[in-house]
């Protein structure tokens, strides 16, 4: 990655994503299945000696899951409780609906934010760091059980850490085991097998891919994976950073491949939510669905009949060792009142104890970033996720986390939808994206 | 100000006793204070809450700013935002078109229908209260709920309409259809609103006018169009303004459905897309808002000119 460090936006992405991912996964692989975080508990409790922590102190904790949102909220609430018990600090929980939290993040951080808040690794985190909205946590790193790859994912463009990861989830191709068994299908390992599988599905009256893009973001996952398979991970990250042309042959190639794959997807995706698409895969009307592991949530079951494989290779010189696996975690807000307490809590949140506290309290666990966290509550799907992500050479964070939010929301969502409406006008769509990218990336 | 000037004068002519010489020009101290306060307070509020933000939006529309840091981080780009909107922003022209369609549709269907319902319900038929409530219900429902209700009808795979008719129409996803689907949902809401306004207007019409018309031998239809409708002129004006404003600021339902993308672009939603939420193109969004403001002021100017012209003629 020897790109000139001058360009305004690319810089941050380079650090948070590009350099990062290769090693990220190696580390995660090792971590995923290790058991036993008990020994780490001791390490976390005492080290927050500042006057602002311990009994009598209060730390405000903003989380992006509202009460009643199910396991996601229960985990975070349990983690907050565990920290309060462990450190004696009073934890003031501020639970906000997921989308509301995300959409008001700018005003939140520049107003009176909580000391510690939930956020994602990637470009946006780095952008907040560049603008001084989040606190430098480099004095809290390294954190036991979080390997170098996670440390790099937590690093902003200035080389310092501003983030503490807690969990992650992969995007992959999901399918029903029972449906595959009944039809004698198997996960494809090459492009030929992949095409043969899809043809066979169509022959049996099953739509190969469920597909819904009413909300605009799910199709980004398809673009990401096709771009990584056709042009490689490095190109993908540098495209996200605004360093590559959107109207070049590489991106046109991605759209062209996508166009050829569209007949294997559910028709009329723009009126369908991802939940509806997941339902049609669940009912066996569609064979497969490219989505994050949260697909389970839409099926109202624990996922025992679900399995997944990573998107097969399309170009043998590129391979299939890259994927989207967004990392969730925490930042400390610069405008938070109690910086010391915030930092101490952030460090603890990265511990195996924090992950275990969350996973033990909820019906559905997350895949912990910390290698010391217990995996005993994991479903088979999660154990496999940890393995697959660990085996991947490169990990991206998903388009809307890897690139400028203005660009992702106001240009890419409408443009991808335009492409899905009118797949034959690739030149028109890519030219329009490039024009708008010029305007936004400056 | 005309009213203020007139008030003391008429007082003087009516009761020659009270006001002393010179009152015509000068109000007593307390009255003056009252007048100053009554003018100044609303003026300050209007300037602070309307004009200052509006002018700031205009200023912001010439800059590029992501909302981080102080105002000095704004990069001034002149008319760049406007140029981008008119040339390379694919959503803009469809949005203008959709707003105009919205306007035309609201006038043609829900307004006329609302008027008709009002006339029918005004006739004290049995159960008219029940119907009133039923038709007005959509107006009081929250938009999130309305979006959800119509999703149940329109969903392509699981929606009621496609299930009943065994069709496969992509109501919300097909950009040629979804605008009309949304307009139907809007009409569902808007009709009740207009109906209520006209009902109130009809109750205010002097009953003797109807009787007189009936005595003169006019039938129901003729009575309505030649007597009642002209009498309700103020209500008609209110309705016109409401419809124009509602269609120019069309936003909420579209936003609930798909955030104003893919065939549902309207200017209000484009502004929101660029400044609310994670995207923070404040300059670009402001430029869109300014354009919206200009379009609205065209209609407002036309309206005000008509009103003033009539005032003068009277």
Structural summary, described in words:
- Chain A: Belongs to the bacterial solute-binding protein 1 family.
- Chain A: It comes from Nocardioides baculatus.
- Chain A: Keywords: Transport.
- Chain A: It holds the Pfam family SBP_bac_8.
- The complex is a heterodimer of chains A (about 450) and B (about 325).
- Chain A has about 450 residues and is of the alpha/beta class.
- Chain A has 20 helices and 12 strands.
- In chain A, helix 10 crosses helix 11, helix 10 crosses helix 12 and helix 19 runs antiparallel to helix 20.
- The N terminus of chain A is likely disordered.
- Chain B is flat and about 75 Å long.
- Chain B has 2 domains: about 60 residues, no CATH class; about 190 residues, MetI-like fold (Orthogonal Bundle), CATH 1.10.3720.10.
- Chain B has a two-stranded antiparallel sheet with strand order 1-2.
- The chains are: A alpha/beta (about 450), B mainly alpha (about 325).
- At the A-B interface, helix 5, helix 13, helix 19 and helix 20 of A face loops of B.
In short:
Chain A: Belongs to the bacterial solute-binding protein 1 family. The complex is a heterodimer of chains A (442) and B (314). Chain A has helices spanning 10-32, 38-45, 71-87, 98-103, 105-110, 123-130, 148-153, 177-183, 191-203, 218-231, 233-240, 249-261, 274-282, 295-299, 339-349, 352-361, 380-391, 399-402, 405-421, 426-441; strands at 58-63, 90-95, 116-120, 164-168, 171-176, 207-210, 286-292, 306-309, 322-324, 327-332, 367-368, 394-396.
